[in-house]
Amino acid sequence: MIIEYTPEGGEPQRFDAGRLRASEIQVIERTAGARWADIKEAMAEGEINAMRTAAWAIKQRTEPALRYAEFDPFEDELRVRLDARETRAYAERIFAKWGSNPDDLAEAWDELRESTADREACEAAIADVTAPKELAPAEPEPSPASPSDG
Asked: What is the pTM of this model?
């Protein structure tokens, strides 16, 4: 999960919440007052406190003196996006659900493209899951034993 922070008038910053140290998770849990699993779920739903807390903890890697109260972005400055692994998993689920309905599938692909942090990974995942699958070659039947094998 990628948290995208775009401060007003500033350059977008991306924070990878999919790869955190145990100590960072503990800080996030303590600050948010919730368990990590619940925080991840809240981030996926766009909950501002969860996104802010995780982004702040990750931002402290490069700004160790940054206090939580000092990192107070506006609600529209934070957004969660899917990382490449999550994008691939969603692409597989979308195709399994909507693969037989081209209109719904096209709409679902558009939504996935809007939700991903990595457009190239998204297009590759879509191409891969929609590519025709080759059937495994049939095993050759054993040849009958000839009378001279005996």
From this structure: 0.73
